[in-house]
Amino acid sequence: MSTDDIAIRNALSSVPRPPRPGAFNAAMAFGWRGMLKIKHVPEQLLDVTITPVMFLLMFTYLFGGAIAGSTGEYLDYVLPGLLVMSVVFTTVYSGVSLNTDLTKGAVDRFRTLPIWRPAPLVGALLGDAVRYVIAGTVIMTLGVILGFRPGSWPGMFAALALTVVFSFGVSWLFTTLGLLLRSPSAVMNAGFMFIFPLTFLSNAFVEPETLPSVLEAFVNVNPISIMTDAARGLMAGDAVGSDVAISLAVAAGLTAVFMPLTSHLYRTRG
Amino acid sequence: MTTNLAIEASSLVKTFGDLRAVDGVDLAVPRGSVYGVLGPNGAGKTTTIRMLATLLTPDGGSAHVLGHDVVKEADAVRGVVSLTGQMASVDEDLTGRENLILLGRLYGFKGKAAKARADELLGAFGLDDAATRLTKNYSGGMRRRLDIAASLVVTPELLFLDEPTTGLDPRSRNQVWDIVRALRAAGTTILLCTQYLDEADQLADGIAVIDRGKVIAEGTPGQLKASVGNATLQVRLLNPEQRPQAEQILARELGAVHLEPDPSALSVQSPDADKGAEAVVALSRAGISVAAFTLGQPSLDEVFLALTGHTAETQEEEEVKA
What we know:
- The complex is a heterodimer of chains A (270) and B (322).
- Chain A is built from eleven helices and no strands.
- By secondary structure, chain A is mainly alpha-helical.
- Chain A has one domain (20-268).
- In chain A, helix 2 (23-40) crosses helix 6 (119-145), helix 4 runs antiparallel to helix 8 (184-200) and helix 6 (119-145) crosses helix 7.
- Chain A is elongated.
- The relative contact order of chain A is 0.13.
- The mean pLDDT of chain A is 89.
- Chain B has two domains: 5-221, Rossmann fold (3-Layer(aba) Sandwich), CATH 3.40.50.300; 230-297, Lrp/AsnC effector binding domain/regulation of amino acid metabolism (RAM) domain (Alpha-Beta Plaits).
- Chain B is elongated and about 75 Å long.
- In chain B, 48% of the residues are buried.
- Chain B has twelve helices and 14 strands.
- In chain B, the strands form three sheets. In chain B, strands 6-7-8-3-9-10 form a six-stranded mixed β-sheet, with helices on both faces. Chain B has a four-stranded antiparallel β-sheet with strand order 2-1-4-5.
- Chain B has helices spanning 45-52, 74-78, 96-106, 111-124, 140-150, 170-185, 197-203, 221-228, 243-253, 273-285, 300-308, 312-321, and strands at residues 5-16, 19-30, 34-38, 60-65, 68-69, 81-84, 158-162, 189-194, 206-211, 214-219, 231-237, 257-259, 265-270, 290-296.
- Chain B is of the alpha/beta class and 322 residues long.
- Classes of the chains: A mainly alpha (270), B alpha/beta (322).
- Chains A and B meet through helix 1, helix 2 and helix 5 of A and strand 6, helix 3, helix 4 and helix 6 of B.
- Chain B: Keywords: Antibiotic resistance, ATP-binding, Cell membrane, Membrane, Nucleotide-binding, Translocase, Transport.
- Chain B: Residues 7-237 form the ABC transporter domain.
- Chain B: It comes from Solirubrobacter phytolaccae.
- Chain B: It is found in: Cell membrane.
- Chain B: It is a peripheral membrane protein.
C-alpha cells in the first residue's frame, strides 16, 4: 500500500460528520464565497464604481445647467436619484453572475449538498449587497466632494441602507432572469432593457410636472420614483413615512414572489 | 429500509424534447463496490448519474440510492452521496484551500474545524503546495484531485465519479485510479462513469454497458469478455516475408485472419485457448519463426463492438451530428 493510499484512508476516516448547517450558516458561507470573489477578481468591482462616477459627472455638468439652471442646484436634486439608479443598475449584475455561475461545474456540487435550498442564492445576494454598498458609497462620497450637503447626515446613511434593501428585493427579479435565459450577455441585455427605461421614467432626473400627463402618471406610480422620493426625504431630513414604507414593501413583495421562483428554477434547472 | 444495494434503479427514463437520453435503465449496484457505467459520449451516462444524484428529475421509472427514493427523499439522498461531475466541480475563482473550507462550512464544520479539515485533505491529496493558488491555475490532474477531495469533506457512503480521467495525462490518470482504489478499500461505494474501456476494466467490480440510453450488457469485466466468446491470438513473425504462409496456416487452423499494419504481425480469433496454442505449434512445425505471440481475452473495446455492432468512436460522431 502506497503512502498516498494510507494518507487518503486516514483522511477519510479521521473526522466524524458534523450536524448539517442551519439556513443562516449555509447562506453566510455563500456570502463568504462572494467576498472571496471580490478579493480574487477585484476588477469585477469596476462596473459598480466607474459607472456611477460617470453618470454623476455627466448628469451634473452636462445636463445640470439646462435642467435646473445651475449645476449646484441640480446636484442637490439628482444625487438621491443617482444613488438609487447606480445601485439598482448593479442588481442586473447579480443575475449575470448567477448565469455565469451556472455554466461552471461548481453549481452541480452545491445542488447536491444537503443544505437549505435557497442558501446559494441568498448568500450570493448578501455578497452582492456589499457591491451595492460600495456603489452607493462611491456616489455619495463624490456627491459630497462636488458640493452636495444633506439636510441630515444620518439620513444620508439611512437613504443608502434603504436603497440597498430595496435593491436586494429588485435583484431577485434578475436572478430569476439569470436562470431563465441562456447566456450572461442575454441576461445583461434583457436586464438593462427593462431597468433602463424604468429608471429614466422616474423622478430621478427631472420633475414629473414637466412631463406629458400620461408619462407623469406612470412616473408617479413607478416604484423607482417612490424609492427616490424616500431617499430624497431621508437625505433632507424630512422623510415621508409612506415613501419609506412603500419602498420596503416593494422589496418584500419582490423577494416573496421571486425568491421562491428563483430557488425553484435553481433546483430544477437541468 | 436497508438493502445490500447502494443503487437500485428500474426503468429510468429521461427525455429532452424528442431525444430519449435515458430510455429505461435498470441498475443494481452492490454496496462497497466500484460499479462502472461504460459507454460512448451521448450514451446517457451523465444523465443517469444526474438523476441518481438528484440533479435531474426522472421522467419515468424509479431509483433508490442507499434506500432513499431519489425524488421523494432527495434531501436524504443528498446527505449520503457526493458528486464529482464531468466538468470540474470546483470554483475556479477561489484557491484550493478556500474551495475546501467553503464545502467544509456547507457540511456543517465551524470556522477552525473547516480549516483543519481542508488542510488535512490538501495534505492527503498532495495539494499542500498549491493550497493558496487559484484553482483556475491548476493543472487538469490537480483540479481533478481537488475535485475528488472536495467530495470527501465528509465521507460519503456513495461517490459519483463522472468521467474522472477524461483529458488527463497518463500520470494523473494513474493517480486518480489509485485514489479510487483507496476509496474502495475504505468501503465507499463508487459509481464510475467512463468512456474508457480500459478504465472500467482496471477499476470496476461490475460494469453496465450503456448505449443510446439503454443498458445493453451487464456483468463483471470477465463475464463481459467471456460473453464475446473468442480469445484473440496475436502473432509477430521474425521474418515478415513468411507472413503469407503464416496467414494460410492460421486460416486453416482458426479462420479469418486479420493482417495488422505491422508487416510482420497477424491476428486471428480463436474459439478457445487450446485451439490458439495448437495454431502456434502448427506455425513452428511449418518452419515459421514466431518472434512473439499473445493469446488474450478480448479487450472491452472488442466487447463493445460485439455488443453494439459499432465502435465507440462512430457513435460519438453520430451524436455530434444529432
